[in-house]
Amino acid sequence: MAPAATLSCLRYPEPPTKTSLEAARQELATQNAVAKELNNKIQAAEEDLARLIQQSRCAIKQMEKEKEAVEEDMAQMLAYVSPIKRLPHELLRHIFYMNFEDYPCCAWVLAAVCKLWLDFIHLPFVLRDGHAAYRSSWAFYLEYVLKLVIDSTGNNARLFRRYYPPMAGAFRTKHATGHRDIPQVLQHPGQRPTYTQTPYIQQHTGRLGDAMDRSYMDSAAATRARRSEHCARCLTSSVMLSSGTVIPLALPAQAFDSMMIPAPADRSNSATPQAKSRASIHWGYIAFYYLTEQMHRWERFVFRFDKKFSSIAALKHLAGDAPLLKEFEISCAEPTFANDWSWLPCAKPTSSYHIPQLQSLTLQYVPFKWSAPILTNLRNLSLRTLPTTHIALDRILYLISQSPDLENLSLCFTAVNPAVLPLMPTTLSQLKSFSIGGHYLLNTLVDSMSFPALQALTIDVDGRDPVEDTISNLFARSNSPPLATLSLAYGTTGTTSGGIYYATGSMITSWHFLRDLDHISTLQVGGIGFETFLSALTFPDDENGAEQWLCPNLTTLAMRNCHLHGDGVSKLVQMIEARNPDTGAGHAAVAVAGVVPARMKRLGLMKLCVVNLHLRAAPEVRINTVIYECTL
Question: Binning pLDDT at 50, 70 and 90, where does residue 506 land?
Fold first, then answer.
């Protein structure tokens, strides 16, 4: 405060007069103008000071970067002039053999010295373009390899992690003649398979498995081309078998052998049983500790395993912010029966984990909560619940409605409770592929949904009610979407996803619902009446009660575990002759109502209790690709 003698108000008389009040008001206006001017000068001075500080800080940061670059250059130069690089290869080989038994990862340490050492050791690529893949036979040393890979990527590179332990015996195929197992090889859906004489041939599952596995197939195909000629010949006789389930199970580890770290044959003798036992318990905790510390760099995380392992509890602490994460998958081939997990899929709705870019989520046989924030704003969602997980229908519908922009949706719920709240109509305008299997109450869930852009539909639920009504009503509510792929109970046999009481296909009494599905080009059915189904696809007449061709655009047909009777062969021949007439003899398909059916290009007959020469020979004359899997 200014001294009392300098206060302007003391110059005016007391009490105020009219003249003094007028003079005081004028002086007050002048003081306000002076105060504003001073305030502007203060702000300008502060801005100049902040600008100067910012410029100085930028200059300091630039000099620090230049210093780091110079120091890095100095380090590389020191490494170049280091005498160790001139070490003879004979001594390097001796050092490697001397340290390998005690420290199996010494190869990576030695290979990091220089390119000459890398070429000499012939170390396979562990890290490539930020991707890492590990073979389960290295699980004893996985935590060391994983830490080495993470450290080698620096602090800013995005991480793409996937780990595939070995699959169970159910994921390997075997010849009917008793020959040894053949590794399975993944192929693109459009790639024509190559195979030798074997009853197990490739099956196309449409869009259900392709969306999740295409990126893995691309990586495998890129490295597969570099294999030896012997391996290439082995791959020619390999086949791919689809699991047939609604959601594809964990992929065979053999499909990624070209990207894996080869394990020596005598590795089992390099450590004591006690050490291996300790490693089998702790490797998961150590590995996931390193990975969780780098969650801010995750862009894609895929972990698939065939069964529960001793350190599976390490997964329940998998939580944190992942601002770059776009794809997250944890898949098990069998139920893990784990409870009280606090990881991302089980987070509370009030949790504040930051995962803004997540687009694809796959959880198979692992615990999750329907209200977890990670289950929102997705484009690809695949869920397979544990048998002990009971979720009400209204909660499942709420889970789906939290991602209105879904493009691919796969659900398998074996234990479902009736709805507590009424099911509200839900429309997914961008959904292209929908797959559902498990409990029979899921038909009620389908009855409350519509998909205007649906292109692929798979239904594999318990057949308590006629599934044709569910499909017809869904098609009508969705305003006749361009459905191109339809699969009904095709994966029932040998799976836990459907057919607990009745097979879905066995409940189909009439195939007239296919009259409205003109866009179907791929049709897969299972557990149906063989003759009745083939009669519906033949030329429309009084016998089948049809007035038009069913599925006129059908080019791929697959049947599995169908009930074949005496006239099944004749019905199959009639269907093939009607849709694929002998063009060489001048015959052509008959047009009905101006519609001529497309020629069938692929036919699959799976798990039919027949080995009939007529059944095998008849289709091969008229169809490009015929696939058999007959049981004796």
Answer: low
